[in-house]
Specification:
It contains 18 helices and 27 strands. By secondary structure, it is of the alpha+beta class. It has three domains: 253 residues, no CATH class; 178 residues, no CATH class; 141 residues, no CATH class. Strands 15, 16, 19, 20 and 21 form a five-stranded antiparallel sheet that branches. It has a four-stranded antiparallel sheet with strand order 1-2-8-7, with no helix packed on it. Strands 4-3-9-10 form a four-stranded antiparallel sheet, with helices on one face. The two termini are 20 Å apart.
């Protein structure tokens, strides 16, 4: 804090004190609800918070265009509680930087056309292209003389129609503002925000482009106070703003790639599935200061990949044009994903040239008469979600003989999606299967031995399709051949997995088969008469499905239930059983890889950040497959717009479990780790923080007799508790 040395400064500081004094009561009464435990400001000194009032909120009150095309916008700057902020950062802490853009939708068109454009020349190719940009040279003045918090910005750029004539008063216009508030000197980082206003200068109701909402993006990019859609350093936070610059006008001069929203976003999310990339090409954008953004390695996380259109065109978000992707197909949108199609020659388009978008909907109507036809929904049918599949649902009703020393008898139902009984014969042969898995105790899996013939650590898996007995209604029983150990105590669990092979488009030239599976069911029971206690709930499948849609792995055998995943992905398990079958000689020669759930999921989501940390994560899967997860690009965005924001632990964790360290749980076996076995907390934390110094730190806090002491500093409300150290700005 600077000490004022002039009469003016004294007066200015007095004004600041007055503003702060008016804020003290506001903050003191709402301290714990103003910020979440995931914000650094939550832990900041109360007096500093009262003074700084961290955060930034833009709002637009009105916009105007005069007859000569002069554009202006009346906007406000405030903190999250609505208290005004000074643009210059003189009367309130932190200077605010604001940029302005303006655009309109020409008559007969559906995308914005930006008023602010500039030529950009590549220093490499020397090619020049037009790009939408911000207004330069305009002026902001206080809306009220001497006041702060409300300003009027007048653009230097005049509104001129696309064809060079006077602007169209009857067209939908939009002005957007975006910017940042620098609070670095107070150790509170930088805050970002944006806002838009849409209107028709001549009066009437505006009809702006509203195809995808920001909320749909944030299903993957983050919904927390420290995460979410952000681009270009963090200040562009909404689709509504992105639409204004990512128009057909904007082209990358280095690559020639068009940056319109419908082209750029489709190609970006197709990533490694683009036909051009599969053929050996790359999809890159050369950005500010010649920075290279390579989207060729992006793997869309939803089940069904990029065919899952509704992952982005989410009907739950309420976009007024949410069905535009079905009702108005066009060459730009379709050709961005299917970039091996040449509409001019007809190549890869049924040999039919397409000279305009006028007739696209004639063949590609919203919905056709059958799946996999040329309709938009038909062409994007995800095979394992096809309505042609009968379905398989295995639900465990009860477990008898579920006591120590006895082999459990499982009663379950096997039915299709219409409620019809599924005969066991249809779950036998080929890829069809039905298995039950037994494990326990729920205090922590992995240590229980189910017999000398069982090679899987901590669990036993038995094929149940031919040994189950069923009645006509689909109620069945299966008798385990392995018993619960006589010394067992506490709660054990039985889980089911089943897979069927279905035929799609039977009897046609497009007949094909697909494997699909049941959602895994888990049933808990006590083996010693004690209270049934399910395994601790650390993550929730609904959070996984926010990105993955319907989590399905291992050839459709493991589906949409993390409570089942941890049966096998326990502290004692590794990929040792598959290493001898490894197709990659280096994998065959390497030690086994640990696959405990906490370690594995942390490592997978750290993904492409691992090499820079001197680490990697490769698992040898079924049939010796090589699965290198250092190519994973975690989609969560930080406030600055960087992907791979793994410190927002609450994105996956539930029940505050990210703050509950697994002290005292089973040690984790991981031959590829510098430390094996390792304490459960050490293993989980070093999955993301793999430096040798971190291992040394963990070892210094671990005793051979008493175990880990990580909770002393990092647990609960300790000074360096995990929630606090992972908090974002």
């Amino acid at each position: 804090m600077r000490i004022p040395s002039s009469v003016f400064a004294v007066g200015r500081w007095a004004l600041v004190v007055g503003v702060v004094a008016g804020s003290v009561a506001l903050f003191s009464a709402t301290r714990k609800t103003e910020f979440t435990v995931h914000d650094k400001a939550f832990y900041a000194d109360q007096n500093t918070v009262n003074f700084v009032r961290p955060g930034l909120v833009f709002a637009i009150k009105s916009a105007n265009i005069t007859a000569d095309g002069t554009m202006s916008v009346d906007y406000t700057i405030a903190d999250p509680k609505g208290q005004p902020l000074d643009l210059a950062g003189v009367l309130t802490p932190g200077a605010v930087s604001v940029s302005f853009i303006a655009a309109y939708i020409p008559q007969g068109q559906e995308e914005f056309w930006a008023y602010n454009n500039e030529p950009v020349t590549s220093p490499i190719t020397k090619a020049t292209a037009t790009q939408a940009t911000t207004d330069k040279g305009g002026t902001s003045v206080p809306a009220v003389s001497g006041g702060i918090g409300e300003y009027v910005y007048t653009f230097k750029t005049k509104a001129v129609a696309q064809n060079g004539s006077a602007f169209d008063k009857t067209a939908t216009h939009r002005i957007g503002i975006y910017g940042s508030r620098n609070l670095v000197e107070f150790d509170m980082g930088t805050y970002y925000d944006d806002a838009v206003i849409s209107w028709v200068p001549a009066g009437g109701t505006s009809a702006p482009r509203d195809v995808v909402r920001t909320g749909a993006c944030n299903n993957c990019h983050g919904t927390g106070s420290d995460s979410g859609l952000a681009a270009h350093g963090g200040s562009r936070k909404s689709v509504e703003l992105c639409d204004m610059c990512h128009t057909k006008q904007t082209v990358d001069p280095d690559t020639g790639n068009n940056m319109s929203m419908q082209v750029f976003i489709h190609k970006l999310h197709m990533g490694d599935d683009l036909p051009s990339v599969k053929a050996g090409g790359k999809y890159q954008i050369i950005g500010h200061n010649q920075s290279v953004s390579d989207y060729s390695t992006v793997a869309f996380p939803a089940n069904g990949a990029a065919a899952s259109c509704q992952s982005c065109h989410d009907p739950k978000q309420g976009a007024s044009q949410q069905n535009a992707y079905m009702t108005k197909p066009n060459r730009d949108a379709c050709g961005s994903c299917h970039d091996d199609v040449n509409f001019a020659t007809g190549a890869n388009h049924a040999n039919l040239p397409q000279v305009s978008d006028n007739q696209c909907s004639s063949c590609h109507m919203p919905t056709g008469e059958s799946e996999f036809d040329t309709s938009v929904t038909g062409a994007h049918t995800v095979a394992n979600k096809s309505a042609q599949l009968a379905g398989v649902n295995i639900d465990i009703v009860k477990v008898d003989n579920g006591v120590a020393g006895k082999a459990p008898l499982v009663t379950f139902t096997a039915k299709d999606n219409k409620g019809n009984a599924i005969p066991m014969s249809s779950l036998t042969g080929g890829s069809n299967s039905l298995r039950f898995v037994l494990t326990g105790p729920t205090t922590d899996y992995g240590a229980t031995n189910f017999g000398s013939d069982v090679t899987t650590p901590g669990y036993v898996s038995e094929t149940a399709n031919t040994a189950s007995k069923c009645d006509a209604g689909g109620t069945c029983t299966y008798q385990f051949t392995h018993a619960i150990p006589a010394s067992a105590k506490g709660t054990f669990a039985v889980g089911s997995e089943s897979r069927r092979t279905g035929t799609l488009n039977a009897g046609t030239v497009n007949q094909t088969t697909v494997n699909y599976g049941a959602t895994n069911d888990v049933f808990y029971f006590s083996v010693d008469g004690s209270t049934v206690t399910p395994r601790r709930k650390v993550v929730e499948i609904a959070k996984c499905d926010s990105c993955h849609g319907y989590l399905s792995l291992h050839g459709a055998n493991r589906n949409d239930n993390t409570d089942y995943c941890v049966f096998c992905h326990n502290p004692y398990n590794t990929d040792i059983s598959q290493r001898p079958n490894a197709k990659d000689p280096a994998d065959k020669a390497a030690p086994a890889q640990g696959i405990n759930f906490a370690y594995m999921i942390h490592r997978i989501h750290t993904g492409e950040e691992l090499p820079a940390l001197g680490a990697s994560y490769t698992v040898v899967g079924n049939g010796g497959s090589h699965n290198d997860f250092t190519e994973v690009r975690y989609p969560l965005m930080s406030k600055t717009g960087s992907v791979g924001y793994t410190q927002a632990c609450y994105t996956c964790h539930v029940n505050g479990s990210e703050a509950v360290l697994p002290i005292g749980k089973n040690q984790v076996t991981n031959p590829q780790s510098p430390l094996s076995p390792a304490g459960a907390t050490t293993s989980a934390c070093t999955a993301c923080h793999p430096a040798n110094s971190t291992f040394a730190h963990a070892m210094s806090a671990t005793d051979t007799k008493f175990g880990e002491s990580c909770d002393v500093c990092h647990g609960g409300t300790a000074e360096f508790n995990t929630t606090k150290v992972h908090a974002g700005q």
